[in-house]
Write a structure and sequence with these properties.
heterotrimer, A mainly alpha, B alpha/beta, C mainly alpha, A: mainly alpha, two-stranded antiparallel ribbon, B: alpha/beta, Rossmann fold, six-stranded mixed sheet, 10 helices, about 25% strand, L-leucine transmembrane transporter activity (chain A), transport (chain A), ABC_BtuC-like (chain A), L-isoleucine transmembrane transporter activity (chain A)
Chain lengths: ~300, ~260, ~350
């Protein structure tokens, strides 16, 4: 096959994976922006969305409706999960404790969700029915193109939401200065809850795109995905919405290209199994060189 | 009068924060045993001067000397080792450690035993621990805190926390002590106690002190000299009497009707 | 005058007595019918988990710097020591009459030193960050170490010259014995106690409480952070070496994922961040409990995670907080003297600084 064509294929593949990462990274970044917490459980919200799809898709099909409408159920479930996690765990710990307790709670939540799902659904993968039957356009599969387009649409919608709507402005206000936002009449707790809801909803859409490609869900599907999406968020600039999008695409492309080419480039010294390690290496480089990320800005500690 | 030895010297110290000149051309000659006050309205840059002198910020201009040694570019702990200690505007204690441990932590740089002796508990380990313990108790006794030595620092009342912070600074065996608003948040009784404390310190330790304060009565009572900052510039320097009558100083605190835009220097 | 030393000597004497009792119990155990391979396996598991959790408490608990990649160092210790044992076998050392436990201890030492070296290399860049970022970067390093080990030939299959990448390491001879392992555990814990009860312990606790104030008190925070990290990595290496020689004879990288790291973090937190006693208790309980409650095995992590959330909500300092068990104080208490314990904090204080990036 023409090497150029191969490259384009891998690039587009990278865009597809990157769109998924971007959607998840957006969730991380929005939550970090508003409460300065890395929600370790965020990757597991994808898993929640995935399992919801696994159960509701057959229902949709049985009811004669398009399979992908099940994403509505996934969005609702994820949003509710996100808000519950915030209200029942993060918020009380935030009030009482310090940053480390919040971090530990987030890790605990992630373990809770993963193991809870394992108890409920077992450790084996579960199939999700066909979500989309789309024609291939040229050499690209329909699902791939749909994922990229859908991702782009969601990102644009989110940008508009954050910049143009009252709630979006409220979110930005709270992330800048909680006290001042309160004084300006912003309902801080409600804003935080909505941020979680929106972020989790994005995770649900990401799970839709994931399932469209891989067609199965497992209890651990969110964990590596979530980690890499987190790296994407940091790369682009955590707390910065366009940064998450940029980071997601970059990580997706890097992963895709490294899986395809690393073996040949280094003469087999480094194999494609290293693509995960490469993503982490990127994280380390970013954190050491410019922790604020590509589009981020630093805020120091007052002495 | 015998010639005064200059202990701390700041020459044309200044710092730029990305276009904003927070402090400009700060000069200081602190002599041995002197107590100099640093005052000025909020935001004048007083704490920034402290941060420069202690190495938290690196000055973009000027030089700093302690007993003739240039301190520019040194890290905070190195400057402490050289002999400058400070307290903070918002008390920074080791909250989850005991009162005793707070003071003993400051001896870390002076304790010489290494990992080997620590793990084997051999050689001079116990001697050094005992002597550190004794010195810590002595210091605490000076401030009346020795009975609370096993108390967690966070459980102390505010006034005693402030004293503990000063005791910890003294534990570093410094030649120059920088006190950042030690009387902040204190009632008149506590402030009077603090005054006694500072006098006691001057008697016992022969340190030179640079003091930031807003409590003018305290400043006028104990400072031998006062430097006044406003918008980062030194607008006056002299004895308390001179400063009290200085029109520019009064204007800086109370504001002037027709203040011009731009540099106030 | 030398009151501190006298007290410490009394305490040490008592502790030695206590350890002698423990060893006597071990002797009895070994001779009894209880000493099945299964029970021995659990005891060994308790040992390496104790070493891991106490070592992790040093950076996470005492120093307040959150490391999520600790199993990376355990892996380094495990694989290095396994390869050393293999090398010793290949070099014919067992035939020289050197006792088995000596070969084991050599392997452990080399493994631990290697782990300490990795700890040093990771901590120098990583400790420039704090809080969430430090957690993530250590996680990243842990994963990178794991992936590297998984893909280098000497650490797979038969190992060393005959190794194949990507395979579990097999054929690790076990020259250790129960007494060596238990003894090693006790020595490690004792060393860690010694480390923490010294200027080092005070320095790292100060760093946890207020890094800026620590610098202002003359503490070279970078030095002590890297040192504490390296020391804890060293002991993680010891734990890894014990793990590698637990008798199964194989090692696989799937035992060293970041999920395992979070499990150890969980144990540190539950036991009490800043209490080695708490770490020991949680290590033992959480190693024995799953075996005792085999029926509930699938709920194990779920229950732990739940406990962790509850702990964060109601007692963030963990079970033991910063309390340490002291045989001396306990006996004094029984005899009616008041032990010298600082009071528990009135409440957990919120961090004053708004941002840590």
């Amino acid at each position: 096959m023409n090497p150029f064509i191969l490259f384009i294929q891998q690039l587009v593949n990278g865009l597809r994976v990157g769109s998924i990462y971007a959607l998840v990274a957006l969730g991380y970044t929005m939550v970090y922006g508003i409460i300065r917490l890395i929600n370790f459980a965020h990757g597991d919200f994808i898993m929640v969305g995935g399992y919801t799809l696994a159960f509701t898709v057959p229902l949709m099909v049985a009811a004669g409706m398009p399979a992908w409408l099940a994403v509505v159920a996934a969005i609702i479930t994820c949003a509710i999960t996100g808000v519950l996690v915030e209200k029942l765990a993060y918020s009380p710990v935030r009030r009482r404790g310090n940053r480390m307790s919040s971090l530990i709670t987030a890790i605990a939540m992630s373990l809770l969700l993963e193991n809870g799902a394992q108890v409920l659904f077992g450790a084996n993968p579960r199939g999700v029915g066909t979500l989309f039957t789309l024609p291939n356009i040229g050499m690209f599969s329909g699902t791939t193109l749909l994922t990229i387009v859908l991702g782009a649409l969601v990102m644009v919608a989110l940008q508009l939401f954050v910049n143009k709507t009252k709630m979006g402005r409220g979110m930005r206000a709270v992330s800048e200065d909680k006290e001042a936002a309160t004084l300006m009449g912003v309902h801080v707790n409600r804003t935080i809850a909505i941020t979680f809801a929106v972020g989790s909803a994005l995770a649900a859409v990401a799970s839709l795109m994931y399932c469209a490609q891989y067609n199965q869900v497992t209890t651990t599907m969110g964990s590596m995905l979530g980690l890499k999406a987190f790296v994407a968020a940091v790369l682009g600039g955590i707390g910065v919405v366009p940064g998450a999008m940029l980071g997601g695409i970059l990580i997706g492309v890097v992963e895709s290209l490294s899986k395809a080419y690393i073996g040949t480039l280094t003469g087999g010294v480094i194999t494609s199994a290293f693509s995960d390690a490469i993503v982490f290496a990127i994280l380390i480089v970013v954190l050491l060189v410019k922790p604020a990320g590509i589009l981020g800005s630093n805020a120091g500690e007052k002495v | 009068m015998p010639e005064q030895k200059i202990v701390l010297q700041a020459e044309h110290l200044g710092i730029n924060f990305g276009g904003l000149k927070a402090v400009d051309d700060f000069n200081l000659e602190l002599c041995e045993g002197e107590l100099v006050g640093l005052i000025g309205p909020n935001g004048a840059g007083k704490t920034t001067v402290f941060n420069m002198l202690t190495g938290v910020y690196e000055p973009t201009e000027g030089k700093e000397y302690l007993l003739g040694n240039c301190l520019n570019g040194k890290k905070v702990y190195q400057i402490v080792a050289a002999g400058i200690a400070r307290t903070f505007q918002n008390i920074r204690l080791f909250r989850e450690m005991t009162v005793l441990e707070n003071v003993m932590a400051a001896f870390t740089k002076d304790i010489k035993y290494g990992m080997g002796r620590t793990l084997a508990r051999s050689g001079g380990f116990w001697q050094e621990e005992e002597s550190a313990y004794t010195r810590a108790i002595e210091l605490l006794s000076l401030f009346g805190l020795q009975d609370k030595k096993a108390e967690l620092a966070t459980n102390l009342p505010y006034g005693q926390q402030r004293k503990l912070e000063i005791a910890r600074a003294l534990a570093t065996d410094m030649k120059v002590l920088l006190l950042d608003e030690p009387a902040a948040g204190m009632n008149p009784t506590e402030t009077a106690e603090l005054l006694d404390c500072i006098n006691l310190i001057r008697q016992k330790f022969h340190v030179s002190i640079l003091l930031i304060e807003h409590d003018m009565s305290l400043v006028m009572k104990i400072c031998e000299r006062i430097i006044v900052l406003d918008y980062g510039c030194t607008i006056a320097s002299g004895t308390p009497a001179e400063i009290a009558g200085n029109k520019r100083v009064i204007a800086a605190y109370l504001g002037e009707e027709d203040e011009e835009e731009g540099s106030v220097c | 005058m030398m009151k501190l030393k006298k007290d410490s000597q009394k305490g040490t004497l008592l502790n030695f007595a206590g350890i002698a009792v423990l060893f006597a119990a071990l002797l009895v155990f070994q001779q009894s019918s209880l000493a099945t391979p299964y029970m021995r396996g659990i005891l060994i598991q308790c040992c390496y988990v104790i070493i891991m959790v106490t070592s992790l408490n040093i950076p996470n608990g005492f120093m307040g710097q959150f490391s999520l990649g600790h199993v990376g160092f355990m892996a380094v210790g495990a694989y290095t020591s396994a390869l050393v044992t293999k090398a010793l076998v290949q070099a014919g050392v067992p035939y020289t009459g050197l006792p088995g436990y000596a070969m084991f201890l050599i392997a452990v030492l080399v493994g631990a030193l290697m782990a300490g070296l990795f700890g040093l290399m990771v901590s120098v860049p990583a400790l420039r960050l704090r809080g969430d970022y430090l957690a993530i970067i250590t996680l990243g390093f842990g994963e990178i170490i794991r992936v590297i080990i998984q893909n280098i030939p000497i650490a797979g299959g038969k190992g060393l010259a005959e190794g194949q990448a990507g395979q579990p390491l097999i054929g690790i001879k076990n020259f250790s014995n129960m007494y060596a392992i238990v003894g090693l555990t006790i020595v490690c814990v004792a060393l860690m106690y010694a480390f923490v009860r010294s200027k080092y312990g005070r320095a790292i606790k100060a760093i946890r409480d207020d890094e800026i104030a620590s610098e202002a008190a003359g503490i070279n925070t970078t030095y002590y952070k890297v040192l504490a990290f390296t020391v804890s990595a060293f002991f993680a290496g010891v734990a890894g070496a014990v793990f590698a020689h637990r008798g199964l004879g194989t090692l696989q990288t799937s035992d060293f994922t970041f999920v395992k790291s979070t499990e150890y973090v969980l144990m540190v937190v539950l036991g009490g961040m800043g209490s080695l006693t708490g770490s020991i208790i949680s290590a033992v309980v959480l190693s024995i409990l799953p075996e005792a409650l085999r029926a509930f095995a699938q709920y194990r992590m779920l229950i732990y995670a739940f406990l962790l959330v509850l702990m964060m909500l109601f007692r963030p300092i963990g079970l033991c907080g910063t309390w340490e068990f002291s045989l001396l104080d306990t006996l004094r208490g029984i005899r009616g003297h008041k032990p010298k314990k600082p009071q528990a904090p009135a409440a957990v204080k919120r961090e004053e600084v708004s941002e840590d990036a």
